[in-house]
């Protein structure tokens, strides 16, 4: 999981993708932001789905996706079309993570509306349904509070069947859990201790039951920081203490932490790699860490 808004160049993207493929890492996710959080005047950000489409053409086995695309950035028809296009370019290797959006300065800088949370969760629910139906339905109408579609066929359909995986990011609250239970394949949580992660799993499974869905059909994942080795720890955090939720230590120590999440219902982990020029770390994730938690 790469924070693309922190000045990741195209050359670095290619190097990261190649390191993933060479070391049997399944999927490369990237954030979907347009502005650096800490250094907006110095660090740039390439568009997420344009980047992923380029990587789709430059790779052969690597799956690619966003964690997560804010509903405030794009009309759902544009988003669904962009993902379907990348799916064709990749031969069926993309995944779409969606969320309600949160970074206020970024929205102000680029002129994106930033409505209250309740409205953003309404947008999320409608967008999930629209994207899902554009990928699967032959033809449909949609009449919602925020979007109106008439006689939509949305061709071509994605390569993947029944459709590219849809992920929802959140903390298990009703505004994300209920629409995820209706339309998503996976629920992703960001940097949360194991016991709190287990509570998110419980709430989302409960939402699935309320929607008449088998909770066993929902996959659960965690996105969290990961740093292996003291040298990288010093480079990233300096004299500061790493966040409690970050996976920091030796390969064995990180594997032990990951297994704690597995015991609580986590089925895959997206490792946030903040030293994006360090492809050796990516190799360690695939070569040394993955076999210990497979």
- The domain count comes to 1
Question: What percent of the residues sit in helical stretches (DSSP H or I)?
Answer: 40-55%
Judging from the principal axes of the Cα atoms, what is the shape? globular
Q: What is the CA-CA span between the terminal residues? A: 18 Å
**CATH architecture tag:** Alpha-Beta Barrel
The oligomeric status of these chains comes to single chain
Mean pLDDT: 97
Q: Which structural category do the helix and sheet elements fall into?
A: alpha/beta
Helical segment count = 10
Q: Could you tell me the radius of gyration in angstroms? A: 19 Å
Percent of residues in beta strands? 15-25%
Largest beta-sheet characterization: 9 strands, parallel
Would you identify the CATH H-level superfamily? Luciferase-like domain
**What series of H and E elements makes up the topology?**
HEHEEHEHHEEEHEHEHEHEH
Notable traits:
single chain; 294 residues; alpha/beta; TIM Barrel; two-stranded antiparallel ribbon; 10 helices; 11 strands
Model description:
The protein has helices at 10-22, 48-58, 76-90, 104-110, 117-136, 174-183, 194-210, 230-237, 251-262, 279-293; strands at residues 27-30, 63-66, 69-70, 94-99, 140-143, 148-152, 166-169, 186-190, 219-228, 247-249, 268-272. It is of the alpha/beta class and 294 residues long. The protein has a single domain, classed as TIM Barrel. The two termini are 18 Å apart. 41% of the residues are buried. The model has no long low-confidence stretch (mean pLDDT 97).
């Amino acid at each position: 999981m790469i924070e693309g808004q922190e000045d990741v160049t195209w050359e670095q993207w290619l190097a990261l993708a190649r390191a993933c493929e060479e070391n049997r890492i399944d999927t490369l996710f990237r954030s979907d932001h347009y502005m650096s959080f800490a250094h907006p005047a110095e660090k740039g950000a390439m568009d997420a789905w344009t980047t992923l489409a380029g990587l789709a053409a430059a790779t052969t086995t690597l799956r690619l996706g966003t964690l997560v695309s804010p509903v405030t950035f794009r009309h759902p028809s544009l988003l669904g079309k962009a993902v379907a296009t990348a799916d064709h370019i990749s031969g069926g290797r993309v995944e779409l993570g969606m969320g309600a959006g949160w970074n206020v300065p970024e929205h102000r800088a680029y002129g994106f509306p930033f409505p209250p949370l309740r409205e953003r969760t309404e947008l999320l629910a409608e967008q999930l349904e629209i994207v899902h139906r554009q990928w699967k339905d032959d033809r449909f109408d949609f009449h919602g509070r925020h979007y109106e579609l008439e006689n939509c066929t949305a061709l071509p359909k994605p390569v993947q069947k029944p459709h590219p995986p849809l992920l929802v990011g959140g903390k298990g609250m009703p505004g994300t859990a209920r629409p995820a239970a209706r339309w998503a394949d996976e629920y992703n949580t960001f940097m949360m201790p194991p016991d709190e992660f287990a509570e998110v799993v419980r709430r989302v499974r409960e939402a699935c039951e309320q929607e008449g869905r088998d909770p066993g059909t929902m996959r659960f994942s965690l996105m969290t920081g990961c740093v292996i080795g003291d040298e990288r720890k010093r480079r990233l955090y300096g004299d500061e203490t790493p966040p409690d939720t970050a996976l920091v230590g030796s390969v064995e120590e990180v594997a032990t932490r990951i297994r704690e999440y597995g015991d609580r219902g986590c089925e895959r982990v997206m490792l946030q790699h903040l030293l994006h020029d360090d492809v050796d770390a990516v190799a360690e994730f695939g070569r040394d860490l993955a076999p210990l938690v497979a």
